[in-house]
Amino acid sequence: MTLAYVHSLETIDEIEPGLDAPIAPVVRVLMENGVETFESCQGGPGHAYPEPTVRFYGERGAGFRALAVALEHGLNVLHLRRVWPIIDGEPTGPCWEMVFLLSTVRSSATRLD
Helix, strand, or coil here: 97? Predict the structure, then answer.
C-alpha cells in the first residue's frame, strides 16, 4: 500500500517531486491560492485513499474557500468534509478533506500544466 504524501508548510516547488503525479497539479492549484494543504494521495488500489484526496488545515470557512478555488479552476469535487481523525484512540483535528473525481485528477495533469 502506498501511503499518502504528508506535506507541511513548504512551497509547492519543494514538495511536488514527492507527490503522486496525478494529484500534484491539484495540490499546486490549492497551494498557490492560499490553501494550507498537508496531505494528498492520488487514490485507487494500493493507495492510502480509495479516491483522489487532499487534506488541509483551516477554520470553519477554510473548506468553503478551498471549494471555491477548486471549482473556479475546473476541478470536479466529489466531497468536502470536516474530519476528526482518530489517532492512537483519540480524536484529533478537525481538519478538512476534499475528495475529487478520479477523472479530474487524470485530466488535470495535462490541463493545468
Answer: strand
CA trace torsion 39, 80, 24, 20 (10° rounding): 60
ω into 94 cis (within 30 of 0): yes
Let me know: does 33 contact 69? Beta carbons within 8 Å: yes
List the Cα angle 34/19/80 in 5-degree steps: 50
Amino acid found at 61: G
E strand or H helix at 78: strand 77-83
Query: What single-letter DSSP state applies at residue 18?
Result: G
70-75: Cβ within 8 A, 24+ apart: 70/26, 70/29, 70/30, 70/98, 70/100, 73/29, 73/33, 73/112, 74/111, 75/26, 75/29, 75/100, 75/104, 75/108
Percentage of residues in the chain having pLDDT higher than 90: 71
- With beta carbons less than 8 A apart as the criterion, state whether 30 and 70 touch: yes
pLDDT bucket at 17, cuts 50 / 70 / 90 = confident
